[in-house]
Design goal:
about 25% strand; metal ion binding; Alpha-Beta Plaits; Aminopeptidase; four-stranded antiparallel sheet; binds zinc ion; six-stranded mixed sheet
């Protein structure tokens, strides 16, 4: 359905009003965040699963207290004979053609990691210089309280008789790779189906410049085996005339990049990232690149890590140095890991990679294929009304234009959301910033960035209440 552009703009009076309401709700939101941070719910086998139950119950209680949902429940799915972690779902049905908006976050957290590196107790929320420190303070308990506060602000602004539909999905095993996610989606379609899915689990560009994560690269990995001989032979007797599998493999793998370090596989898709300031110097610092070692590839740094393909050989099975003898190796295995650009189908990328390998394998060596992994990339639907409204809401909330950012890796569950709900517009928003250190010791959320995220999501829902999309 076509939504006129000017119906997606916010006027300054309603923005100011929403900011006031979020300010009023903020102390409670911070207290809620603190309570959640104190529950160490970690979905890894080595940790106490009871904490995940407590965490899910605490989250369910917070959404139940809003009093606006027709259903708030803790549910689980199964996969491979194992029951998954508890997730919280809630739904209030849209009325009169208004959009149904699903708000996603996760309540499980990463393990704390090396405790000696933490400057504050890892599960004790601690405010220092405008940031709240603690495991999960950003990733992703800040996402939960952002959704909660946006709903409360919606009710404060419109009363409890609003028409926009709101659903909640707070997963409990994201940091463990979401093993039952796909089955959970399939089993709970009725609660989760939506016109728009807001995934609050990413980052802003800075603490003051908001961002939508509009691209994620996908993944194609392929194990190969290269064989030149039917058994190992003495290098002193045959070396010089008979090719060994290691030399053949290394020459083949070296063909995957050109002289500039760009991926040499022909036909792969690539595009351009937004023009944001990200220098090679910053790349060097962030990655720990050694002095004197050059970056590889061409185009802007962000093109190279967000919107162009990359190839890395991540493992080789061959003779170890300790066990090596003077022989020509008959066969070598390698695992090639390829990040693919947004807009590229994994199956197509795999076919192009295989064609390259078959064209470049030297000496007529035998090439065979082992295990394959495929993960879809993501590209936000920028023509949809939801992205335009999200941009307008973020820009109004922060007072700075929202920018489009990418992630060079993938968020695997996004691909599942796309497959199960192909008609939904997916928005990947965030409460984090470049200093949030999600997954690392000293994780934190910036208080004003969190407040901005809450204002933006409130504005989105309030405006959504005016839109007729169905
Ligand atoms: Zn997360």
């Amino acid at each position: 359905m076509n939504i006129p552009e000017d119906s997606l703009r916010h006027d300054s009076i309603s923005v100011a009003l929403v900011k006031e309401k979020v300010d009023a709700a903020f102390p409670v939101a911070i207290a809620n965040l603190g309570d959640l941070v104190r529950i160490p719910g970690i979905a890894w086998d080595a940790f106490d699963p009871q904490q995940l139950e407590l965490s899910a119950e605490a989250v369910a209680a917070l959404f139940r207290e809003t009093g606006i949902f027709e259903l708030v429940e803790i549910r689980r799915a199964e996969a491979n004979g194992k029951v998954g972690a508890p997730a919280v779902v809630a739904r209030r049905e849209a009325r009169n053609g208004r959009p149904q908006v699903l708000l996603y976050a996760h309540h499980d957290v990463q393990p704390p990691g090396d405790l000696s590196v933490w400057n504050t107790p890892e599960f004790q929320p601690t405010l220092i210089d405008g940031r709240i420190f603690g495991r999960g303070a950003a990733d992703d308990k800040a996402g939960i309280v952002t959704h909660l506060t946006a709903i409360k602000t919606l009710v404060e602004t419109l009363g409890s008789d609003f028409e926009v539909g709101v659903s909640i999905f707070i997963e409990g095993e994201e940091e463990a790779g979401s093993p039952t996610f796909r089955n959970f989606l399939e089993a709970n379609r009725d609660v989760l189906a939506a016109d728009v899915i807001i995934v609050a689990d990413s980052a802003n560009w800075t603490t003051t410049i908001p961002a939508l994560t509009t691209t994620l690269r996908g993944l194609v990995s392929q194990v190969i085996e290269v064989q030149t001989l039917d058994h190992a032979v003495h290098s002193g007797m045959f070396g010089g005339a008979v090719p060994d599998a290691m030399t053949a493999t290394l020459r083949l793998l070296a063909s995957l990049h050109d002289e500039a370090g760009d991926v040499a596989v022909e036909g792969l898709h690539s595009s351009k990232a937004a023009e944001l300031d990200f220098t090679e110097e910053q790349l060097r610092i962030d990655s720990g690149l050694l002095d004197g070692v050059s970056a590889i590839g061409t185009g802007s740094i962000l093109d190279r890590i967000w919107t162009k393909p990359s190839i890395t050989v991540i493992g080789i099975d061959a003779m170890s140095v300790a066990m090596s003898s003077n022989t020509l190796l008959p066969s070598v295995k390698a695992k090639i890991s390829m990040r693919i650009a947004p807009g590229q189908e994994p199956q197509d990328a795999l076919a192009l990679l295989r064609a390259h390998l078959e064209n470049h394998v030297p000496f007529g060596a035998k090439l065979s294929y082992g295990e394959v992994e495929l993960g879809k990339p993501f590209e936000a639907n920028s023509a949809g009304w939801a992205k335009k409204l999200a941009e307008a809401s973020l820009s109004a909330a922060f007072g700075n234009d929202s920018v489009d950012i990418g992630i060079g890796g993938s968020i695997p569950f996004i691909a599942d959301l796309l497959e199960v709900f192909p008609a939904a517009q997916i928005l990947v928003t965030g409460v984090e910033d470049a200093d949030s250190r999600a997954h690392s010791p000293n994780e934190s959320v910036h208080v004003d960035t969190l407040r901005g995220a809450m204002v933006a999501e409130s504005l989105f829902l309030i405006k959504g209440n005016d839109l007729r999309v169905n």
